[in-house]
Amino acid sequence: MAYSISNSSFLLSRPSPSHKTSLAATSHSFLSLHSASTARQFSSLSAARIRRGRVCAAVAIEKEVPENERPETFLRSADPAAVSTSVRARFEKMIRDVQDEVCAALEAADGTGKFKEDVWSRPGGGGGISRVLQDGTVFEKAGVNVSVVYGTMPPEAYRAAKGNAGADNGGAKAGPVPFFAAGISSVLHPKNPFAPTLHFNYRYFETDAPKDTPGAPRQWWFGGGTDLTPSYIIEEDVKHFHSIQKKACDKFDPSFYPRFKKWCDDYFYIKHRGERRGLGGIFFDDMNDYDQEMLLGFATECAKSVVPAYIPIIEKRKDTPFTEEHKAWQQLRRGRYVEFNLVYDRGTTFGLKTGGRIESILVSLPLTARWQYDHQPEVGSEEWKLLDACINPKEWL
Questions:
Q1: Which residues contact 387 (CB under 8 A, 6 or more apart)?
Q2: Among the options 28, 34, 189, 199, which is catalytic?
Q3: What is d(CA 2, CA 235) in angstroms, rounded to the nearest whole number?
Q4: Which residues form a coiled coil (predicted)?
Q5: DSSP output for 56-115
Q6: Which terminal CB of the chain, N or C, has fewer other CB atoms within 10 Å?
Q7: Rounded distance between C-alpha atoms, residue 298 and residue 294, angstroms
Q8: What is the tally of helices (H) and strands (E) in the chain?
Q9: How far apart are alpha carbons 319 and 334 in whole angstroms?
Q10: pLDDT at residue 97 tops 50
Q11: Left (φ > 0), alpha (ψ -120 to 50) or beta: where does 57 sit?
């Protein structure tokens, strides 16, 4: 995946539900840590055309402007949505609060490492805050980014993404579709092989087309998830992590956890290996089929659950003794992490193809990884058990 929130070109299609790349999936590109870049975001798309159900658009990419201080809000003061009671304003406040909470918890757990912060804005509207802790005592690399951005997209892109590219709008010509995207995204790579990697991402996306724009009504949706990628299965840790995800889901709908756990297992699948990247968690996208306030509350609950789901595991495992063999296996599993992010993750591939800021795109990758020719763990070993669980997803609760 890659740090993100930025870029702007489209390659939109409608694949299977478990891997759908709809407009919501594209918002995942902007906002995920696995996305285009914390440095750029698009202001306009032009020369869009539809070919075989896809939209290919030329891109105008704005370079970010470094800022010395964090603004109170990235929302435009003249924007009616900037009022503190709007969904946009409350979602921005939530992701910035979570960024502060997670970074404070990670620094406390690490003991010596401190986050480096970059604040940026974009001329077209919005900006972001990127934070990275590197070479700490506990964490090899940890990144926590937020972004709030504005832009426009061609109506063709909007209609194709929503599955009605050929819709007849009575001969009227639609204009550009304004969009709003905000999100938080993070990947945390500990040094100890018995301490798992964590990824989380929560995002909100709107189109806000003018009333006189045919074929592009106002739309909104939420997406996100939290997933765990250990090198060794410590069952009490995995059960703890999944229990926190289930608890957050059950507060809103008991069907959410089993549904989003399967979605997570399906999404983080390394096809050429025939295995999952890790031991899952929850993942959802394109969510607008429930009350908006309910989904805002759900996304907030999930994001606020990151610290209680992860920090107790880190505190238990950060000082666990390990051998060179344990470290070598961790590096092999890190290699799988790299493979998924560079080959399959929508945000990363989107950013690489559209000229995003490379440091932001690749910030989710670990500092070190390993590829060993034809490595096969011994059947029945702890390493084999992990691989088996990645090939055959398990129910942990």
A1: 275, 377
A2: 199
A3: 29
A4: none
A5: EEEEEEEEPEEESS--S-SS-TT-GGGSTTSHHHHHHHHHHHHHHHHHHHHHHHHSS---
A6: C
A7: 6
A8: 11, 13
A9: 20
A10: yes
A11: beta
Top mean-pLDDT range of 75-84, 156-165, 219-228, 347-356:
219-228
What average pLDDT is seen over the chain? 81
Provide the pLDDT for residue 50. Answer: 32
The identity of residue 123, as a single letter, is P
Active site residue 375: no
Give the start-end residues of each E strand in 23-64: 40-51, 54-63
Residue 103 to residue 99: CA distance in whole angstroms: 6
Residue 106 near residue 142 (C-beta atoms within 8 A) = yes
Q: Position 99: which residue type? A: Q
Of 356, 382, 384, 365, give the one whose Cα is nearest residue 6.
356
Helix (H) or strand (E) holding 266: helix 256-267
- Distance, in Å, from the CA atom of 383 to the CA atom of 36, rounded to the nearest integer, reads 34
